[in-house]
Amino acid sequence: MDIHFTEEQELLRSSVQRLLRDQYDFDARRKIVASEEGLGRRQWDEFAELGLLAAPFSEAVGGFGGGPLSTMIIMHEFGRHLVVEPFVETVVVAGGLIEQVGSEAQKQAYIGDIIAGSKLWALAWTEQGSRFDLATVTTTARRDGDDYVLSGEKTAVIAAPWADHLIVSARTSGHRHDRGGVSLFVVDRRAANLDLQGFKTIDGRRAAEISLRGVRGELLGKEGEGVAALEACRNRAIGALCAEAVGAIGELNDATLDYSKTRKQFGVTIGSFQVLQHRMVDMFIAHQEALSLMHHLSLSLSEGEAGLSRLASGAKSKIGYAGKFVADQAVQLHGGMGMTDELNVGHYFKRISSINIQFGDPAYHVLRYAQLDVAA
Amino acid sequence: MELALSPDDAAFRDEVRAFIRDNYPAEMRVANPETDLSKEQMLLWHRILHNKGWIAPLWPKEYGGPGWSITRRFIFEQETTRAGTMPPLAFSVTMVGPVIYTFGNAAQKAKFLPRILSGEDWWCQGYSEPGSGSDLATVRTKAVRDGDHYIVNGHKTWTTLAQHADWIFCLVRTDPTAKPQSGISFLLIDMKSPGVTVRPIITIDGSHEVNDVFLENVRVPAENLIGEENKGWTYAKFLLGNERTSMAGIGRSTRYLNRLKKIVKAEIPEDDPAHLEFIRDIARVELDVLALEATELRVVAQMARGIDPGPAASLFKIRGTEIFQDITELTHRAIGNYGLAIREHPVSANHFMPGPDYGHTASEKYLNSRKLSIYGGSNEIQRNIIAKAVLGL
After folding, report:
1. pTM of this structure
2. Residues in a beta bridge with B156
3. Over the range B322-349, which residues count as b (16 or more CB within 10 Å of their CB) and which as e?
4. Which of B135, B204, B355 shows the shortest C-beta gap to A341?
5. How large is the ipTM?
């Protein structure tokens, strides 16, 4: 299942590679993470300039029509450089949802600003006790004229401290776990009655607890059909996160292999020990499998094949476990150095740990993969 | 699971239990004692144990030990770890102390041992170097004799809590021409000596436990040499044996498992399919703990009968660290989306952490425990030891 990339796609890849190589080495990233905001506004502008923020959108809304394959190409490179800016949250998740279910007016109002790099977004769907279930929602939305008024608590909302707008899932009818009755709303992050308590994440990004006490929101998509919209959105987000994870896995394997060829103990390079050779062979195999699944998922996403949710869950789980295995072993084989904040290896470890929580951990997705088996 | 105890030993166990309950400082019960306590706070329990005469279970009576049998030492270890007390600084009490009373001269014993027992001196370990991790015998830090001093130059690394240390015990090369193991000496160095610099190493959990220690033309009185020059490797190996005995960590693992069960109960509803997954994963780890604990008790019973357990310490180190890593990973998984958050170091009440208290240290513990399979002789090295010493391969 090898993807034959088009000239345009190769061009996209090489331009992302060039930009990140020139402007996003590990030291540059460290400075961004340590900054007050924890975000590179200048880098985000560069992404916009290069057209990355337009790449996946259809031409109808002002994008380049690159779809999930362009997302895959970009996120794979972002994974290699541990890019912290909210491309997934803003472009893939929020932008994707607006394009998928938004009104013409909403597409007009929001997508242009996303593509231009002038607005950042975050998706607030997780709540205390929801774990990874999109339908477990207790935040409520009550109709009030043309708008809705939202009340409730959202938890661990990644990128919220950076965002200008939030998409919030809230219940317009039904009970806590019901699939039906969940709707999506666009909320101004600085709206009245919205409290945000920010915190740092393990991978050097920012997230927030959000409290809504009568916050005005604008309906996005059909009332009561938010879960279906979120499921499709999650599939695309998984495609992006899997590509990012594979990029990180590849970097860890390269770094570990290099280290094993130079680090000497007992008078020889540690790469000459058979037990470590076999370990690195297993890391190589894990990377190859993850890369193949990443291609398979992204192709299926771009062709809109049936059974996408099952495949997405399968890939999230399998690539999640592969990432965990590789990250564990990369730290182990680097010894004490792998434990330090100074070396990039630990930062890849933490990014992979974080990816493995976002939109569901590998254990959640392997169960979902099993449950979605029509033959079972 | 318990050792079959004589009535006397059972009474001793009850005494230890009551003593901990009545005397362990509340001030030391913080979210993550390993990173959150100041030096002074860490020493509180040390001083209480010292006053009681229980600070150094391993030491013979003549040097200030309590004179316990192997069984009692084990009971004490079991009770203190089960109760979650912070163990006294291992580098002082478990490591350098026994080296000094076993290989040191009378003056060294008189000078250092009482100060170790009282907690007056804080010791750190100068073993690893950038080029010498698993392969310790290649240490390059040089000590050159100059009259009644040694001039020491080198770079030690991964030096745990050196930022608090008064003294460092170092492996130094005194004979560059000899075979690696033969040219090493064991030297005690005052951290206040001119030429000693400590540089913090921040680890992936954000904490500051380990350091680089740079030694530049440090003048060390020759009287601080332990035993004979160039015999340091023997003393170092003796010490590493001590380091591994408590590695099974049954008490700690049991406590963290119980905590994990409570977290799973609070976080994951029984009708969630993930609940069964967790129950099964926890049961597997619990069986791992049970099997390791049974092995530990078997070894302790053998030792009490005078049988040398051989490299059982390597087995304890491998399984004990793997088990604890599994538990911290399951705990991190159990808190779901809150696993994204991590406390900022140095810890301050001003930093906001989301979610229930029981999850606040899950991320840092998960990250920090990656070190366990690396330090104190990596688990790969421990497997080599068993392959060679037990299996004869």
Report:
1. 0.96
2. B213
3. bbbbbbbbbbbbbbbbbbbbbbebebee
4. B204
5. 0.95
